[in-house]
Amino acid sequence: MRIQSLNRRSLLKAAATGVVASNMSALDVLSQPALANELAREGKSVILLWLAGGASQLETWDPKPGRRTGGPYAKIKTKVPGIEISELLPKMANQLDETAIIRSLNTKIADHGQAYTLMDIGRIPEPGVHFPHLGSIIAHELGQIDSQVPDFVYMYTQTEGRRQDSAGYLGARYNPMFLTDKMMPDDLHRLDAISDVDHHDRSALRDFMAKRFIRDLNNPSIGSHENAYSRVQGLMASDYLFDIGREPQAMRDHYGPTQFGQQCLAARRLVEAGVPFVKVARAWWDSHGQNFETHRELCADLDHCMSALLEDLKQRGLLSKTLVITLGEFGRTPQINGSLGRDHFASAWSCTLSGCGIRGGTVYGKTDDDGHTVVDGEMKAGDLFATIFAALGIEHDKEHMLGSRPIPLSDFGSKPCREVLA
Amino acid sequence: MNAKNLKRIDEWTSQDILFCIAQDCVNSRLWVGSSDFKIYEVDLSKEKPTRIEFQGQHQSYVTGMVRVGQMLVTSSYDRHLQWWDIVERKLIRTVRAHEGWIRRVIESADSKQVISIGDDMQCKVWDAESGSAVASFSDHQSLTPHHFPSMLYAVAASADGKWIATGDKVGHVALWDAHRFEKVGELETPVMYTWDAKARMHSIGGIRSLAFSPDSERLAVGGTGKIGNIDHLEGPARLEVFNRASGQRELELEDKNKKGLIEQIVWSPDQQWIVTAGGDNNGFITIYDAKSGELQHQEGQNGHIHGIACDETFANIFAASHERISRWTLA
Known about the structure:
Chain A is an alpha/beta fold.
């Protein structure tokens, strides 16, 4: 199937080089809404902290202490007057001015696989249409065609619940660079048998011959081939981005010793270098037994790593351009089972959005006193996607044409939640 | 008594989770600590026992309870110990005792002190009457080897008044001189701790119960064995028994029939049996021969058992459980 949409990159390039209108001043460019939006999106990135298995909203962002469903943890005040979160997140309590909490997700599906797909693509899957992952859409929208860095990096080290996200109809160009066992991508280094000099000489020779070939053949598909080649070269040269050993020890200490911390640091390095979408999965929150012990462990990791990431991004001036999301496939039941566990629950759960385009220090939506249902501001997966797109300056209702069928970026009927947008 | 006589004879259901229990069978009374943060007296003399609420409450789950004379001392995840008058059912005193969840409170052999443990990894000794602090000590790391918070789950005091034992999440047991509060030994039970480095990257388990034998010569350690899928309490209930003086492991028992955690261990007064209680989603009581380790008898129930209390004759066992209190007999 052929996908047609306005190619914003070519438009931007043309605008920047004066091809669109030779007399267009910079002010004129910005006065054109489409172009102004394009420029506004430049340099924006997303870091998705994927809480795989389903973190409990009651032990994180929507505590209900004192209720039968509330569990043992207290709630604590945050930096933002009137907003309280679980005592398991004390460091995030001090950074909540950069974060919007959404407490009213109602996505209904409480099966791991189906719920993962829903929160992966933002809509119910349909036979015959291979919808792209959120990261692929954002990579497509924010990535640069001639980028020397990956567009979508996805780290999922644990094995439980691991799935490879797909770019679907957007094509393999927007599939994630998928890192599982190691933080360094496989097959990125030149072969040991080839010296650095040989590698560069070969590349120069290939470039020389390719230019003559392109000039003589005058075929557009050759340009695509050329792009792919330069992209591979760029990826090979970007291996240093994954090497957190290049960071000062103080910065590594800032993120802490856990694997999740190290991956959050790598994520920061990647977005700093221009990678538009990085997903860091932290499995596994599926606490059917011993929910409170599990959350005491995992929330300590989340609290430290997320707050370290936000602080680091802010100090580097990157937070205003980087949207940090915490999300999983669902939340956990208000009822506490016989093993002191909580089971799958998708009717009233929480996520957070921090940084780029977000009105920090806000809470959107409300659940009832025991957390069984959403009583205000119900949000579906499509609405969350629309909100994420809006925060990044991407039109959520922009359509891809799949043959003759228009497909909006976020699901039909979805709307951004303006209350959490800056 | 015959272990095979063990059977459940009563069950009183509720909507809360009961974590701890103390008994006064002479006067047909029980006390329980609840997930609703409150303390209740249960009058067993009535055909349908009713729960009578104490005045006052904790601010989180009530995790431990010990009767000292006419007082109850309770512990909570709210980091406080509370002293209660059991006649008036009134709160006498609240003490901020730990900088972390308090997991359990017990009494010393002479009942003059109470001993608490918490997730600040401290074991603390208190004057039972005045509530004043006597000592604080620890041999337990606050982080696991994998850099996550550890927990101090279990404590026991020996009947001869000489020893205290504390046990943590990673399977480390410290033995203490109960008068000088100095460490005199340590034991390791690493199987109790499951770290899943590959699939889920977190842990489960830990030492959940400790009990000295009546002659104070042996120490029983309870928890769970290795768990494959740590989403659930699906590991075998695990009991290890050590010689206190030598540190030698004498028994190492795993029960694949009744899975989950051993939450409490009680030795029979004649040292013939070791009674264990706990569970996964449901509960069990299991009786082992204390010498051979042979499983004598076990029974299950709906609802995980968090704590048990035996009467002086060892004929009645009361269990604080998930949404119920149950009464068992060995008579």
